[in-house]
Amino acid sequence: MNARSNSVGQIRSVSAWATENWRFFRMRVAGLTNQRAAMQALLAELDGYAATYKEVTGRSMRDATIFEIGYGARPLRLLALTSQGLNAYGIDLDTPMLTTSLGNLVQIRRSNGWLRFGKSAIRSLIFDRHERRALDAALGARGAKLVVKSERFLVGDVVNLQLPEGSVDLFYSEDVFEHIPLTSMDAVCASLAQALSENGVALISPVVFTGLSGGHLPEWYPHTLQKTQSRHSKPWEHLRDRRYTADCHLNEMRLSDFEALFARHFAVEAIRNLQPDHGRAFLSDEIRNELHSYSHEELLGYKWCFVLRRRPHTP
Ligand SMILES: C[S@@+](CC[C@H](N)C(=O)[O-])C[C@H]1O[C@@H](n2cnc3c(N)ncnc32)[C@H](O)[C@@H]1O
After folding, report:
1. Can you give the pLDDT at residue 17?
2. Among residues of the chain, what percentage have pLDDT more than 70?
3. Which one of 130, 234, 266, 281 has the fewest CB atoms closer than 10 angstroms to its CB?
4. DSSP assignment of 145-176
5. Residue 240 backbone phi and psi in degrees, to 5
6. Ligand 1 centre from 287 Cα, in Å?
7. Distance, CA of 112 to chain centre
């Protein structure tokens, strides 16, 4: 499937693009120092999926057919699940760089263009090796070993995904639904709802636009908030002056938009604010007044997890 990447090319000026990507690069370099903790956190997150799946369905995730929407350029969750022998698959617009090879880079250039090619080459040569080694070590502590099953990584637009009815027990998705165009949202949800098994669960966790990090500017990424660093943009710049643009497509959906969307297609079991109070230190009285049309909850949230089930009597 040929699909255009949505994680490149939104910024109009070359200098703005270079600045955004330079900040992103520095963030990745800084991340090289704590890979071990990052991989343990990743496995703990997957344990969280298993716990929710068990809680909601009474069944073990080991027996589930699992499907990830938007596994990303660093598809660590899907690699971790498949390496541990779980029956997991996923789809992404961008061709993943599962192993470093010229052939893979050429394929990425063909499918997703030159910019994605450049980003993938840098990522693969500098970061992937470290990250995969750390993942292998974290899996080793659980008696597993990193194995790359490339057939589990589908490439294409989720809006065109056609899965057999009732064939998936667990969908999950992290940081993806805020990037899907508004015009595709209902079609995507309808397709996932029909593919969900009778007793299945979907854990969809978007970054909601109205939070401090919702504008996807690297200088407001969650891990930067503890640091006293100088920034070019204001807190909640994306809801205020909007002088800077993230290097990706954002549909700008608010919490209530997601709630209404999911309620149209699923039974909404729970809505979890995964980082309540995110960015509180930056919400001055002045900004609060300026942003009075947004609720406290939606300004002080980051990622939200929607726990969804198949609606009874869905044809
Ligand atoms: C911010 S990244 C998140 C990746 C990964 N889930 C993670 O947490 O690291 C968003 C991913 O969603 C993918 N994506 C966005 N829209 C998509 C679509 N319509 N179909 C498939 N993948 C999509 C992008 O290609 C990108 O890899």
Report:
1. 67
2. 89
3. 281
4. -----GGGEEES-GGG--PPTT-EEEEEEES-
5. -115, -95
6. 31
7. 18
Reported pTM: 0.88
Count how many residues are written for the chain: 315
Angle at 81 between CA 79 and CA 87, to 5 degrees: 115
List the structure tokens of 57: 């369905």
Kindly give the residue spans of alpha helices, DSSP state H, lying in 123-195: 129-140, 182-195
Q: For the chain, list the domains and their CATH numbers.
A: 40-94+148-310 (3.40.50.150)
* Closest atom, ligand 1, to C-alpha of 188: 19
In testing the pocket of ligand 1, which one of 1, 128, 176, 191 has its CB within 8 Å of the most ligand atoms?
Answer: 176
Residue 72, ligand 1, Cβ within 6 A: yes
CB of 157 closer than 6 angstroms to any ligand 1 atom? yes
CA of 290 to the centre of ligand 1 (A): 32
Q: How many CB atoms lie within 10 A of CB 232?
A: 11
Residue nearest to atom 16 of ligand 1 (CA): 180
Q: Please give the single-letter amino acid code of residue 97.
A: M
Residue nearest to atom 7 of ligand 1 (CA): 72
Weakly modelled stretches of the chain, pLDDT under 50: 1-4, 7-9
- Phi/psi of residue 221, nearest 5 degrees: -60, 150
Residue 114, token pair as written in the block: 């030159």
Cβ atoms of 1 and 160 within 8 Å: the answer is yes
Closest CA to 204 of 265, 151, 163: 265
Degrees, nearest 5: CA angle 115-120-124: 155
